[in-house]
Design goal:
Blueprint: E1 7-14, H1 19-22, H2 26-38, E2 45-53, H3 56-69, E3 73-78, H4 88-91, E4 98-104, H5 116-122, H6 129-138, E5 143-149, H7 155-176, E6 178-183, H8 196-203, E7 206-210, H9 212-216, H10 225-238, E8 240-241, H11 251-267, E9 269-275, H12 282-300, E10 304-306, H13 311-324, E11 328-336, E12 341-346, E13 361-365, E14 375-379, E15 385-394, E16 400-409, E17 420-425, H14 430-439, E18 446-450, H15 454-464, E19 468-472
Parallel strand pairs: 1-2, 1-3, 3-4, 4-5, 6-7, 6-9, 8-13, 9-10, 16-19
Antiparallel strand pairs: 11-12, 11-18, 12-17, 13-14, 15-16, 15-18, 16-17
Helix pairs in contact: 7-13, 7-15, 10-11, 11-12
């Protein structure tokens, strides 16, 4: 990632204080279990440690830590039965989901040889979960439960923990990075228009506005020839350029990419939405002709770049890039009724990481269809297999909504005029998919990622307090 962020995960465990003087062996047992649990969290997150909580006062101290750190998510390890008062003070003032980790130490009781301390310490995590959820509901908190076992390992539990951490990373990226808007949305695409203040209030994203006049001069101060040469070689390694290319032929493009990378880091940009509608002459024309591959190089490094000034699809691309590793701009292109598949794709910048079938291609065209000027087009080649689509839209009151679908990309002919496109089959058929997807009001664009990611997107939606409409799986 050009701009790195780490999700901040609040973690604490709870047990009933009344048990500890009665059964002193529980203290080292619970401490060991809590230490082991923290090690199951991936090193991609920052742990905010609330400790082993057995009293209301300890819970309040944990809450102070979580608020000060602005945590993105909280895991509560249920060690044994505990009153909900041990939990509520720690999360009362937080506006993030609380995940109750109901993981029992032993797979099954040795009934004849289990005394009360062993039962309470290694076999009774489940007893407090219903009470905790009841009080989370009454407190208006978002919540989830993970149930499993430690003994023998539990891949389901580990996968859920890592999935929640990936989802939390979206919140952190939105809070810690900015979105750049260069120019304005494509004229007349009113579905793309957005209230930046509402965006900040609801989704944490701050919009930085940039004029194209400033961007034309972005590479004027780039003089490090070694950095430019290295980036030129990176471009040649990334793309199969029509007619061939050398470091010298892509030198100017590489210079702009180096400049954009510096700009992204200086401005802390996780997302960019741009559209140019000028005369494309002089320096403006030079930059405009190279924007598509230049922004593609940024997407490859984790900064989502959307064409046509679409901030909402830039958000969708960023979400998928964060949770799935790929984030490709897309839209409905065509329907092959003979094959019952949808052709989905887009012109413009794309994600080289999604191009698994073959190396992305780059070619020069005299006209960008529907847009000013001409220049380099890039085409990416997503692989055959599972694919997930995510759109972000808004209702009349400005509330955001996710629209998601999973399908399967199939082999077969695709368009070859320079735009990325995929042959996607949906479980409900092409006609019904088009009806349901369109009826959800998803706007013109969506983002795509290889694999199936609806379950993770649902976690992101819960963290961001956004409804999610599932079209099909």
């Amino acid at each position: 990632m050009l701009v790195n962020t780490k999700a901040r995960i609040g973690v604490f465990s709870i047990a009933l204080g009344a048990y500890l003087p009665q059964f002193p062996s529980l203290v080292p047992e619970f401490e060991a279990q809590y230490d082991a649990f923290k090690k199951t969290l991936p090193d991609t997150v920052e742990i905010i440690d609330g400790g082993l909580v057995t009293t209301k006062e300890q819970s309040m101290v944990a809450g102070d830590k979580f608020r000060a750190a602005d945590v993105d998510l909280v895991f509560v390890q249920m060690l044994t039965y505990a009153t909900s008062y041990n939990m509520l003070p720690a999360i009362r003032d937080l506006d993030v989901p609380v995940v109750l980790v109901n993981v029992q130490k032993l797979k099954a009781p040795d009934y004849a040889n289990t005394d009360i301390p062993k039962w309470l310490g290694e076999l009774y995590a489940c007893g407090a979960v219903g009470e905790a959820v009841a009080d989370l509901e009454r407190a208006g908190k978002r919540h989830a439960v993970i149930t499993g076992v430690v003994e023998g390992g539990d891949p389901y539990v580990q996968a859920e923990i890592e999935d929640w951490c990936r989802a939390a990373q979206v919140r952190r990226r939105f809070r810690d990075t900015n979105i750049a808007q260069i120019g304005r949305p494509y004229p007349g695409m009113m579905d793309l228009y957005i209230d930046e203040t509402n965006l900040y209030n609801r989704m944490y994203l701050y919009t930085k506005q940039f004029d194209w006049e400033k961007m034309w001069a972005i590479a004027d101060d780039i003089t490090d020839e070694a950095a430019i040469r290295a980036k030129a070689e990176d471009i040649i390694a990334t793309f199969d350029i029509e007619g061939g290319a050398t470091v010298e032929t892509v030198w100017e493009m590489a210079k702009y990419v180096v400049a954009f990378e510096k700009w992204v880091k200086d401005e802390q940009l996780g997302l960019i939405a741009s559209h140019y509608d000028g005369f494309a002459k002089g320096k403006a024309g030079v930059l405009d002709s190279m924007l598509i591959p230049a922004f593609s190089m940024l997407i490859k490094q984790g900064t989502a770049c959307a064409v046509e000034g679409d901030i909402k699809v830039a958000m969708a691309m960023s979400i998928l890039k964060t949770i799935a590793g790929t984030g490709q701009l897309s839209e409905m292109y065509s329907i092959d009724f003979n094959e019952d598949i949808c052709i989905i794709g887009h012109s413009g910048s794309g994600d080289a990481d999604i191009s698994k079938e073959k190396k992305p291609t780059m070619k020069i065209v005299p006209v960008f269809h529907g847009k000013t000027g001409g220049g380099y087009l890039t085409q990416f080649y997503p692989p055959v297999g599972d694919i997930t689509y995510l759109a972000i839209t808004q209702d009349g009151d400005g509330n955001f909504k996710f629209v998601v679908a999973e399908g399967v990309n199939e082999e077969g002919p695709i368009f070859t005029f320079g735009d990325t496109n995929m042959r996607t089959r949906f479980s409900i058929g092409a006609r019904e998919f088009c009806n349901r997807w369109s009826e959800s009001g998803p706007t013109h664009h969506m983002a795509a990622a290889t694999g199936r990611h609806i379950d993770t997107i649902l976690k992101v939606a819960k963290i961001l307090k956004v409804p999610c409409e599932i079209i099909c799986r």
